[in-house]
């Protein structure tokens, strides 16, 4: 059954592949391509040609076109968020088994199928073991991952990636030229919306993202410093608790940054 599904997917991709092969984007256009892809999804426009162009790219195209961390993050966040919308709107039943969904090779790009987990933990988080709480690196990442991953981890990506659930950060369209501003703004908006501080209990309840990826944030001390910087808490002498995460499927949750 899986082979049949993959065959159908490749059929779709190759419908536009011939045209895409002659229109491979140069290094300056990769972020524009990802922005156009996500913009078309947001506006309800067809994305088949853009999906074909993404698939027709080579590893070398991606490596040469995404040199800085800003370029890598903007591109891959848009691709990740875009394909969450595409795949789950077409096949919402896949969300019934979320673990399998995120690990499945199903995103067609650069002549192969890759998983959401590869983008998130391998490329964007610099080869982190997905069960390592942000404290354990992968031992043997493959060539694709090594060539394309960021040089430095940025905890703010956790408030930019949309996993399709109700408690996920909303989808914004990221631009490498404005990435610093957008990530900071998106982080502040999400944390101020989801964090609950109780003066009486001297306690702050925060998103479970802080627990699942604690090493990315510098553990509890780092979490408290982030919350203080955003003026969600006044000092770091507070107890931190983690909220339950609402995994109800909730697509089309967009925001302007």
Would you write up a description of this structure?
The chain is mainly alpha-helical and 257 residues long. It has two domains: 2-176, no CATH class; 184-242, no CATH class. The chain contains 13 helices and five strands. Strands 3-4-5 form a three-stranded mixed β-sheet. Helix 1 packs across helix 4 and helix 3 (30-42) runs parallel beside helix 6. The longest helix has 22 residues, at 69-90. The protein is globular. Residues 2-8 and 10-25 have low confidence and may be disordered.
- Which blocks of ≥5 consecutive residues have pLDDT under 50? 2-8, 10-25
Shape: globular
Helix content: 40-55%
What is the H-and-E element order? HHHHHHHEEHHHEEHHHE
E-strand count: 5
**Over all CA atoms, what is the radius of gyration?**
19 Å
What's the overall average pLDDT, rounded?
A: 91
Strand order of the largest sheet: 3-4-5
| Major sheet description | 3 strands, mixed
Number of domains: 2
Structural class: mainly alpha
Strand content: 5-15%
Distance between the termini: 41 Å
Tally of helical segments = 13
